[in-house]
Backbone:
């Protein structure tokens, strides 16, 4: 039947997204780490260090959740293909509403943003996490850095650059992780932190050198830039108040 044939095409078109997500989640390595941590948790003396034991169990729970979620997606895809076959063979349109609902749910789960993928892979919460917590990076990092730079006599553009470096140094920009990979994003954060530690108000040449490295490696701190914009807005609002 035409309706079920159309959904088979949709499902086959969705399959590459499932494969891509599986690669992005690095599930082979995840399964290996689960095996290692389960063996560690079963070893004698595991509970001798309660703090470490809790960290291991939390990590294990997170990793198992990644594996289970992908298994559910795969199972859902398989079940829908079976529904399509059944619907065609039995010419049973009553199966269509279930198929439509299941497909919509699976499509939503696989059409991940960069932020969602970063959360799944590494626990980075990105913009959603910032908003949920009341933008702590704006209140505790960017605004103080911006104020210090302005008080030191820098213009708004240069002060904003300093605040941006502080935000990048937090290492939570999901856009950087999506563009350059997690390890490169971590290095960028470390580079910014070292630069600020060496000189709280870095020279333009040092910042420009860092900028060129970011351009070369296709890094864009888009999430941090959004937080910087929010910081400027709040700073201006405070001035008006």
Residues:
């Amino acid at each position: 039947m035409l309706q079920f044939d159309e959904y088979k095409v949709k499902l086959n078109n969705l399959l590459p997204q499932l494969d891509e997500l599986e690669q992005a989640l690095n599930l082979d390595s995840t399964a290996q780490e689960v095996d290692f941590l389960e063996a560690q948790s079963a070893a004698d003396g595991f509970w001798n260090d309660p703090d470490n034991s809790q960290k291991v169990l939390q990590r294990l729970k997170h990793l198992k959740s990644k594996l289970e979620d992908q298994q559910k997606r795969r199972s859902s895809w398989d079940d829908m293909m079976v529904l399509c076959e059944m619907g065609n063979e039995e010419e049973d349109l009553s199966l269509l509403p279930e198929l439509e609902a299941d497909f919509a749910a699976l499509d939503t789960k696989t059409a991940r943003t960069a932020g969602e993928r970063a959360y799944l892979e590494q626990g980075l919460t990105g913009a959603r996490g910032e908003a949920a917590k009341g933008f702590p990076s704006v209140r505790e990092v960017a605004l103080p850095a911006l104020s210090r730079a302005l008080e030191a006599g820098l213009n708004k553009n240069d002060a904003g650059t300093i605040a941006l470096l502080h935000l990048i140094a937090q290492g939570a920009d999901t856009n950087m992780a999506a563009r350059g990979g997690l390890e490169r994003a971590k290095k960028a954060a470390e580079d910014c932190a070292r630069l600020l530690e060496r000189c709280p108000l870095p020279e333009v040449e040092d910042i420009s050198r860092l900028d060129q490295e970011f351009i070369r490696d296709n890094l864009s701190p888009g999430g941090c830039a959004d937080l910087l914009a929010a910081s400027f807005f709040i700073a201006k609002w405070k001035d008006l108040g």
Observations:
- The radius of gyration is 24 Å.
- The mean pLDDT is 86.
- The chain has two domains: 2-111, 130-240.
